[in-house]
Predict the structure of NADH dehydrogenase-like protein YumB.
Amino acid sequence: MKRPTILVLGAGYGGLSTVVNLQKSIGADEADIVLINKNDYHYESTWLHEAAAGTLSPEQVRYDIKDVINPGKVKFVKAEVQAIDIKGKVVTTNVGTHAYDYLVIALGFEGETFGITGLDKYALSIANVDAARQIREHIEYQFATWSLEDEKDDSRLTIVVGGAGFTGIEFLGELGNRVPELCKEFDVPAEKVRVICVEAAPMVLPGFDPELVDYAVRQLKAKGIEFSIGTPVVEATPEGVNIKKGEDEFEFIKAGTVVWAAGVRGNRLIEETGIENMRARVKVDKDLRAPGHSDVFIVGDCALMINEEINRPYPPTAQIAMQQGDMCANNIIALMKGNRTAEFVPDIKGSIASLGDDDAIGVAFGKKLMGKKASFMKKVVDNRSLFMIGGVGLTLKKGKFNLLK
Ligand code: FAD
Ligand code: NAD
């Protein structure tokens, strides 16, 4: 009998967890496993705010895919997926086409701009490692240019961060530590720099524990971060952003840098597959298959699952993407053996937001944490994902070991 081809699209947390678990569990002669990713490296999306602020190098954030796959069992193809033909069971990339028996779509997230005018063009987004590098270099350019200008435009030194969700808050935490370094490096007086977070909702980190939120806001304000809360960004221009402050009241914030961190959607390729989706996320069946497509699995940020306890979707996180990858591998193996698939139930261990390298807030195993303890736990979690995918070797190579900073 012909060996089935398992085609995995995307080498983020979901895709790599799927592949690593498949290669552990099946023999080389049982299936042809093909992994397609646009780069020959994986990046830790959960560390991108650090690369964007310049507190961690882009090199530290990424590792070679070949370091974690077994070439005897998995064929890696560096290519950009361009189209997914679910009916024809074939995927088109910029370097060729691939037929499949089982497909795993793990193409991750994109920034959501909600159609707000100018954001696509004038705001930067912490979307991948290249985009993170661009943000770091853009901010450095603004500081360097200010230093050289005869007629100084102080708005160059204003950084607006749109969104006070986890991404916005973690990025602000890094900026809080990075701005003093930048001031020293580029001879900029600290009082000239403004970092302003603009949030649409009436609170920072909407829905998160109020005590932890208060702590985070206090700590960030102590580092000079300003907050404009309940004031959605309604437009971005080459000079800055317009925010809505009341029924007919708007304020323009002139800024040299605008970073948009106000939400994510799934990969736009999903929207062209014909599979029903919401903002490029597919409400998958309990065993992670696309409804009505018994050979298509979707994991990570392209998948949507409802938390029935609160009747709301689970948030798109690396924690869930990795657990889905494990389950997806098991379910493909079950199908290959003619067995029943299992239902995916997320095991949420908590969530921790860093506030820079030395501070954090969060809930882990039901316990509230803040300060150094939370920061320690966040680094343990960061190292855990390296360990789960690449074992001790990868953890030693890329891990964070300044645990008690
Ligand atoms: P991704 O990690 O986005 O990977 C998708 C992969 O697909 C990438 O390798 C990409 O290059 C590739 N790809 C995309 N398009 C194509 C294409 N057309 N062709 C080929 N390849 C393609 N979650 C947590 O649980 N904990 C955290 O602490 C946390 N921190 C975060 C911090 C930041 C700054 C951000 C932005 C997110 C954070 N998240 C966190 C959320 C988490 O990063 C995502 O939920 C997670 O990355 C989703 O994993 P994924 O495998 O679905 O996709
Ligand atoms: P999010 O959707 O969680 O937060 C976006 C924020 O932007 C919200 O507070 C929203 O009110 C605000 N917003 C929306 N429109 C706006 C507008 N027009 N103007 C101003 N503010 C606006 O998105 P995120 O922070 O990018 O997080 C995405 C996912 O990644 C989430 O599931 C999150 O849990 C996860 N994540 C987790 C961590 C962590 O666990 N440490 C870190 C980062 C991200």
